[in-house]
Amino acid sequence: MGLPVESAVNTAPVLDRIAGRSRDEWNAAHAKVENYFRSLRVENKFLCTDLATRVIERAIARATNETERPAMELAADEMNRLVTEWFAAVLDDSREASNALLATRGRLALLLAGMPERWQDQFLKPPPWPDEFVRAMREAYLRAGPDFRLLHMEPQPLDLGPITKLTELGRVWYFRMALAWLAFAALLVVLFKLTH
């Protein structure tokens, strides 16, 4: 027959929580993850929702052990981990999956390789991937640039070239023009005095 009304009312708050967090919190995290995938130009709504759901499921699995972290933070962490692990596999890069440079260059390679237009269905898909896709991603990854290095640059004096000479000539020209106008004004004053 089902549960009595009293027990259904008493269990409602329990059913509204997943891994110690509210459904609203998980829904907001899901929406943020979907927005991130859309920013990577994953336009297919079904694929985007499926990928976001996979990320949230991984975050929920971690949530029972990490009770102090909010759902949004767990989802963002899992999303970064999942995407970076996928980049490491596709690009055959042996760096740690937490490496921020790998994630950044991987996202750039994704766009340079034309993934959103040509291989959207391959995004976060497990292997095997089409050879053309892997080749395009790896070539784009190499084009994304070398590892960044910090350099120390010594300040150098500015050499403005011939413009400095023109500026010096300009001062003389302005001085001559000022003298010509003063002479003209003096001439007008003299003419006024003579006629009045």
Tell me what the structure shows.
- With 196 residues, the protein is mainly α.
- The protein is 67% helix and 2% strand.
- It has a two-stranded antiparallel sheet.
- It is elongated.
- The model is unreliable at 1-12 (pLDDT under 50).
SSE arrangement:
Blueprint: H1 5-15, E1 17-18, E2 21-22, H2 23-39, H3 45-63, H4 71-91, H5 100-112, H6 115-118, H7 131-143, H8 163-195
Antiparallel strand pairs: 1-2
Helix pairs in contact: 2-3, 2-4, 3-4, 4-5, 5-7
Uncertain ranges: 1-12
Q: Percent range for helical residues?
A: 55-70%
Count of runs of 4 or more consecutive helical residues: 8
Question: How would you write the strand order of the largest sheet?
Answer: 1-2
Features:
elongated; 2% strand; mainly alpha; two-stranded antiparallel sheet; 2 strands
Give a nutshell description of this structure.
By secondary structure, this protein is mainly α.
